[in-house]
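Per your request, structure below.
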């Protein structure tokens, strides 16, 4: 009878332990490989080459008139007759980074001029002289870097905010940024 008891105890132990032994196998998934993607890029550097310059503007320019300077140094707008000389030219920066990477060019942090005589808006950028062109304020300009070092030309619209601007130099600033996507 002792041997029958031992068999019975062993059977009970097996019945209790069996789910524990096989449960890991029942609930285990087949291993799956997961890829790891890494793209190494060069840090972006931006160097100013030329300031955005509207030249000499007559103080008789009227409130609300515009000077639109494009990336090819062309000037249009309702106040273009008020531009009477001086250096006229689009801004230019050189951007160094990694070629072949999706990126965004963005003009932001546009400072108001000290006198409040005008506002700056509607910035346009031309990456690598015709590579990618368009609006680069607001949401920015999506580009793919085509070379490791490229010029970016910058145009903008100046809108007069006062009836009679203050005579003298009245500079302002903005920032251009490029981020990899």
């Amino acid at each position: 009878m002792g041997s029958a008891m031992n068999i019975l105890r062993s059977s009970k132990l097996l019945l209790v332990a069996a789910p524990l032994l096989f449960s890991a196998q029942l609930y285990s998934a087949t291993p799956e490989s997961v890829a790891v993607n890494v793209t190494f890029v060069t840090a972006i550097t931006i160097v100013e080459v030329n300031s955005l310059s509207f030249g000499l503007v007559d103080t008789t320019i009227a409130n609300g008139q515009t000077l639109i300077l494009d990336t090819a140094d062309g000037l249009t707008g309702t106040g273009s007759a008020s531009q009477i000389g001086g250096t006229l030219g689009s801004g230019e920066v050189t951007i160094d980074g990694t070629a072949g990477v999706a990126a965004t060019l963005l003009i932001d942090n546009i400072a108001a001029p000290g006198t409040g005589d005008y506002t700056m808006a509607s910035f346009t950028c031309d990456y690598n002289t015709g590579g990618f062109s368009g609006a680069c304020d607001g949401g920015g300009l999506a580009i793919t870097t085509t070379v490791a070092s490229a010029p970016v030309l910058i145009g903008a619209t100046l809108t007069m905010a006062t009836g009679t601007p203050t005579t003298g130099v009245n500079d302002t600033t903005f920032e251009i940024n490029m981020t990899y996507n």
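The chain is about 15% helix and 40% strand.

Regards,
D.
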